[in-house]
Each structure stands twice: as structure tokens, then as C-alpha cells.
Amino acid sequence: MYGAECWPATKEVETRLSVTEMKMLAWTAGVTRMDCTRIRQKFGVAPISDKLREARSRWYGHVLRGKEGAVRNIAALV
The organism sits in which domain of life (predicted)? Predict the structure, then answer.
């Protein structure tokens, strides 16, 4: 997800993204919750919260390796 590394990742945001992701996967598969199928395993998709964490960690690593600048100075304060 483009720009996700800068989002404030509250539990509510992660939950809403997860619910939306599952609704889209179920719609794509043509199943409902009544069918009780493992949609995530069927498509081989990782949870979106894991992807957000990966993107944030990757971005933070780039910030730490970068030159001295405004973003790196802010990262040092955190």
C-alpha cells in the first residue's frame, strides 16, 4: 500500500483494513461467511497488518541509513 509507512497505525486502523481486506477477498472468491471457507489460505495472501509492519520497518531502516536530515533527526528523537 503506497504511503502506508507514514500512517498512524492504531489498532482501529489495522482492524478496519483487515475487515475491508477480508470483504474484498470474499467478494473475489464469491463466497460468504456462511460458507466457512479459509479465504486467506485459498488465495495465499498474508495479513495486511503484517504488510504494514514490513513497510514501516523498511522505511525506518532507510531513514536510519540516510544522510543527516530533518527526517533522520526526528527518528533519533523517537
Answer: Eukaryota
